[in-house]
TrEMBL record, chain A:
UniProt entry keywords in alphabetical sequence: Cytochrome c-type biogenesis, Heme, Iron, Membrane, Metal-binding
Keyword Membrane annotated: yes
Protein name: Cytochrome c-type biogenesis protein CcmE
Coiled coil (UniProt feature): none
One Pfam family of this chain: CcmE
SUPFAM superfamilies: Heme chaperone CcmE
Subcellular location: Membrane
InterPro entries (alphabetical): CcmE, CcmE-like_sf, NA-bd_OB-fold
Database matches in Gene3D superfamilies: Nucleic acid-binding proteins
Automatic annotation (TrEMBL), chain B:
Key words of the record: Cytochrome c-type biogenesis, Membrane, Transmembrane, Transmembrane helix
PANTHER family: CYTOCHROME C ASSEMBLY PROTEIN-RELATED, CYTOCHROME C-TYPE BIOGENESIS PROTEIN CCMF
Family the UniProt entry places it in: Belongs to the CcmF/CycK/Ccl1/NrfE/CcsA family.
Transmembrane segments: 6-28, 49-70, 104-122, 129-152, 202-221, 233-254, 274-290, 297-316, 336-356, 376-394, 427-447, 454-476, 488-509, 521-542, 816-835
UniProt KW Transmembrane helix keyword: yes
InterPro entries linked: Cyt_c_assembly (IPR002541), Cyt_c_biogenesis (IPR003567)
UniProt keyword annotation of Transmembrane present: yes
Identification of the protein by name: Cytochrome c-type biogenesis protein CcmF
Organism: Hymenobacter caeli
Disordered: annotated span: 841-862
Cited Pfam families: Cytochrom_C_asm
Length: 142, 862
């Protein structure tokens, strides 16, 4: 039965390796404060930040900067986290199409030289999940 | 308003639910306390009857739901939210399973068919297997019963009325019988033929995992601990094949329709199918090990049961809302989490309990496995598959850990890896290496008597060739200026060895006169898939890098990937060996092959109807004459991009698509790629931005220019000649009447590619002057003929200009992606062949094992 034991130990070792490696790769949800602190400590690991877009009285998001004629790969915006800390975010990709309407924005990336370099943006749009209004039908007019 | 069909549907759901419970109980009673094959006939009759009633009720539910969709009954929420008047019939089918309820229904439907299949093919097992089946059906149907009992909502009915769903709409107060005129339409991404066949395939695969599971449960229950393997294998084979094909179909759909730049994104919803498939394939190996070599039965039990539990877990993961913002797939949370957990918990406890209870009685082989026994290596392969599945499971479940910790009151903030693709790839790559090596080794050893000498003889050629091929490949990759990392070398070597060894096995078998082996073929397919994944994903190259030479000094410069380029209409731009030109916007016109330029289509108030401004001809055949009404599909705009290969001069055209999507938060656009397939690579292109096609163009304030015939002028930087003034021809959309005076100017504008004739109109009717401006979209020019001075022969033109049309584009090259698709086909073929061979063998008489089958002693360990 010795060989079986070796086999079992090998499996356990690999499984432990998988768990360790996943733990090492797993990211965390943080606030901008902590993201800045990490950068100050020289920790360049990527984090998740959840935030909202600051909006004006007409409910338009403010501070979006995207001019495809100048650079289609440069999109900058300001994001406010749950502790009301605002942070400039740069995303080196075209502006996601339904960005303005998203309720919540989840970004992944890290702080670099004072801006948050996002390499991934996940938008949470209210109507994507449950359609609560009758948009697209002619109810509103009547 | 038609409430009848919904009532029939709802009633049928309830009948199906009750009948499933009756069937489960009756089948349970039929076989309770009896040996397998000995049943209480009257209970069995009742069970069978109840199952048929259940099946008929399910068919009725399917019929009612389809009727609601087909007849556009928007008083029902399901039709309203997933369909619309303009939805083509073929997509009404995908509309059926666009919602959670419909996809549950599809799953239930398949299991009804499979239940009947078990009744027909496995009569001896009918009672216990169908008892399990009916219990599963009862749980599944409960997800769509939509009954509120004592404040507790059970299931979500597909027959819910719109007014029951959107209760706070003011219109119900004035008109409770209000029916919307149109639905909100099917998610544009689902309007794709793959979405017609991919979900049924996947759910058939899911349903098929139930069959071996039900056999395993029946075997444990009836203490027929070995007899179940033989009938379960064909079902597991079909399941493995169908689920595998379903997974790859989903990948292909994502590749063709989504725009994340590949076919696999390690999204939790993808993983939720990938994990049970890996374990199912592992379990299949366990079953075959027992059937052929009398070893590995416990493994087979454990894996068959795990597969089914993983399917339940996947269902929980994707439909309970626990993934939250971790997934781009948007399955609505219907508040079924509790129900789904009970479903998961019930069968987990039942199955694990039974397995533990009988564990000691399950026979094991006493034969000591040596390094020369193929069983050992098949077993190692099974383990590799399971470890691979475990890895994906462990990471995918991260949102579940957070939810669970939150549930017990501890706040955690663990997130999925920031770069998921890199995380999964680096670990799954090693599973690929293991599978590549073991698929070859296992197949070679399986078919021969093994000792040091025979093994060396059998393996040497493929090992040497694989080493040689790998060396060559490394040199080639380097020669092309790319790098290859050690893990990639390992995967290539393993994959190539897998291909060669399996080819060798097929060749040896053919020489021995044995018909084509399905197993070897499937393993060959898998090895090819590994190579295809390595090449197409590992060496996917972005070819749309910014090569304009301009560098925008912003926060950072060099180390950021700038993967998108901006192309102005009709201005050629160089890009990685190609010359690219964005050549305008096109519409899809039903009945006309290819796409039709928007410039020849005059928009009307009805979005779906346009007037042809010129004859629409394709390949010499006339489809529409000038002035005809042309039906278009307005939500899709196709952006024509012409590619010219600078080296070979070869040209091709791609039409990446953007869909206006009202559902995705206030109307963004959704981009879908267009792909040019070459034998050795794909060119994949999608739009990542464009001016909004639905917003009217921003025209500048018109500037007036006074011209005489023959004058030249610059319009928006284009040279133009005012050639003539002429009587207006019958022009589309104008409806000239007798007595009208209509003149048109003929202005020729010299664009980059061609000349444009612009014809602004000047019409006098009953002494009233009308002006119809003319536009050139390509150049961003609008011209109107404002006044005419007949004495002086002077004409005043109003000129407005607009921002030139542009697109932002991303293009990628995917080398050798065809290896992946052809490997999948071979794998599927291998599964099919194994099934056929199994059936013919069964008819031919007793099992004939492969050569030199080592006889294991069979002795249950007490």
């Amino acid at each position: 039965m010795k060989r079986t034991h070796i086999f079992v130990i090998a499996i356990i070792a690999v499984a432990a390796g998988i768990i360790l490696s996943t733990t090492a790769d797993a990211s965390v949800y943080v606030l901008f404060g902590e993201a800045r602190q990490r950068a100050a400590e020289g920790n360049a690991t990527k984090v998740h930040v959840v935030g909202r877009l600051p909006r004006d009285a007409q409910n338009h998001p403010v501070g979006l900067q995207y001019d495809p004629m100048v650079d289609p790969n440069y999109f900058a915006f300001t994001l406010v986290d749950s502790t009301h800390v605002a942070q400039r975010v740069v995303y080196n990709n075209p502006k996601p199409q339904d960005f303005e309407t998203s309720e919540q924005v989840v970004i992944t990336g890290a702080m670099r030289s004072g801006v948050f370099m996002a390499d991934n943006i996940l938008l949470k749009c209210p109507s994507k999940y449950v359609k609560k209004d009758l948009k697209g039908t002619e109810v509103a007019a009547k | 308003m038609n409430l009848l069909v919904g009532d029939i549907g709802h009633l049928s759901v309830i009948v199906a639910f009750v009948a499933a419970i009756v069937a489960a109980y009756a089948y349970f009673q039929a076989t309770r306390g009896r040996a397998l094959g000995d049943v209480d006939a009257s209970w069995q009759r009742l069970g069978r009857g109840a199952f048929f009633v259940h099946g008929a009720a399910v068919l009725a539910v399917v019929g009612c739901l389809f009727d609601i969709i087909y007849h556009h009954r928007y008083e029902y929420y399901y039709a309203w939210s997933h369909s619309s008047n303009h939805l083509p019939i073929k997509y009404m089918i995908s509309c059926f399973w666009a919602g959670q309820e419909g996809s549950f229904l599809l799953w239930i439907f398949w299991q009804v068919l499979l239940g009947v299949g078990v009744m027909v093919f496995n009569k001896r097992w009918e009672a216990p297997v169908l008892a399990v089946f009916s219990a599963v059906q009862a749980f599944l149907v409960s997800m769509i019963v939509g009954v509120v009992a004592g404040g507790l909502k059970i299931g979500s009915s597909p027959f819910m009325l719109l007014r029951e769903f959107l209760t706070d709409l003011p219109v119900w107060k004035t008109n409770p019988n209000f029916v919307p005129k149109d639905g909100t339409g099917l998610n544009a991404l689902l309007q794709n033929y793959w979405m017609v066949i991919h979900p049924p395939t996947l759910f058939l695969g899911f349903a098929l995992t139930l069959v071996p599971f039900a056999f395993a449960i029946a075997a444990l229950w009836k203490k027929e601990l070995t007899a179940w393997v033989k009938p379960a294998i064909p079902w597991a084979l079909v399941g493995g094949g169908v689920l595998g094909v379903g997974v790859v179909m989903g990948a292909y759909w994502a590749y063709e329709t989504l725009n994340f730049g590949g076919y696999w994104n390690w999204d939790p919803v993808e993983n939720a199918v990938y994990i049970p498939w890996l374990v199912l394939v592992a379990g299949l190996h366990g079953l075959v090990l027992w059937q052929r070599r009398r070893t590995g039965l416990r493994t087979a039990y454990a894996l068959v049961i795990t597969t089914f539990i993983l399917v339940l877990y996947a269902t929980f993961l994707t439909r309970s809302g626990v993934l939250g913002n971790a997934s781009v797939h948007s399955f609505t949370d219907l508040g079924l989490s509790g129900q789904l957990l009970i479903y998961l918990g019930f069968f987990t406890v039942l199955a694990v309990g039974l397995l533990v209870w009988r564990w000691k009685d399950i026979p094991v082989s006493e034969k000591e496995l040596t390094m020369y026994s193929p069983e050992l290596w098949v077993f190692v392969g099974t383990t590799v598959l399971c470890l691979g599945a475990f890895q994906v499971l462990f990471t995918t479940s991260i949102p579940v850990y957070n939810a669970f910790m939150g549930f017990v009151g501890i706040k955690t903030n663990v997130a999925l890896p920031a770069d998921q693709v890199a995380h999964y790839s680096k670990l799954q790559l090693w599973m690929g290496v293991g599978i590549g090596v073991l698929s070859g080794l296992g197949q070679v050893m399986w078919w021969q008597r093994n000792d040091k000498e025979t093994l060396l003889n059998a393996l040497t050629p493929s090992v040497l060739l694989a080493l040689l091929g790998t060396a060559l490949a490394v040199l080639l990759v380097r020669y092309n200026g790319l790098t290859i990392s050690p893990p990639f070398v390992a995967l290539f070597l393993a994959g190539l060895f897998g291909v060669l060894a399996n080819l060798g096995a097929l060749f040896t078998l053919a020489r021995r006169g044995i018909t084509l082996s399905g197993g070897a073929l499937a393993h060959l397919g898998v090895a090819l898939m590994l190579l295809g994944v390595l090449a197409s994903s590992g060496y996917s190259a972005i070819i749309s890098r910014n090569v304009s030479g301009l560098l925008y000094s912003r926060e950072f410069s060099e180390d950021i990937n700038r993967d998108n380029v901006l192309l102005y209409r009709n201005e050629a731009a160089p890009m990685h060996g190609y010359q690219l030109t964005y050549a305008g916007q096109y519409f899809e016109v039903p009945g006309v092959p290819g796409y039709v330029n928007k410039q020849v289509l005059f928009r009307t108030d009805d979005d779906y109807k346009t007037l042809a401004r010129a004859d629409i001809k394709v390949g010499g055949k006339l489809y529409y004459k000038m002035g005809d009404t042309v039906t278009v599909i307005p939500e899709n705009t196709y952006y024509r991009v012409d590619y010219t290969n600078k080296a070979s001069g070869e040209r091709f055209t791609l039409y990446p698509r953007a869909q206006v999507n009202e559902q995705m938060g206030g109307g963004g656009i959704l981009a879908s790629p267009d792909i040019k397939h070459f034998w050795d690579h794909d060119i994949y292109t999608h739009i990542s931005g464009a001016p909004d096609t639905r917003k009217d163009k921003q025209w500048s304030e018109p500037k007036e220019h006074v011209l005489s015939v023959g004058d030249t002028i610059f319009l928006n930087d284009y040279f133009a000649v005012f050639r003539a003034i002429e009587p207006a021809k019958e022009t589309v959309g104008l409806g000239l009447q007798k007595g009208d005076l209509a003149l048109q100017a003929d202005m020729v504008v010299y664009g980059e590619q061609r000349q444009y004739h612009v014809h602004p109109l000047f019409v006098v009717r009953n002494r009233l002057v009308g002006r119809v401006p003319d536009e050139v979209d390509d150049l961003g020019i609008r011209l109107s003929l404002n006044t005419i001075d007949p004495q002086k022969g002077k004409f005043t033109f109003g000129v407005s200009t607009a921002q030139k049309d542009y697109i932002i584009l991303k293009a990628m090259q995917k080398p050798f992606i065809n290896l992946l698709w052809s490997g999948t086909l071979l794998m599927a073929l291998g599964f099919g062949l194994s099934l056929r061979q199994r059936n013919t063998r069964r008819n031919a008489g007793p099992e004939v094992g492969p050569v030199a089958e080592p006889r294991a002693r069979l002795e249950p360990v007490a």
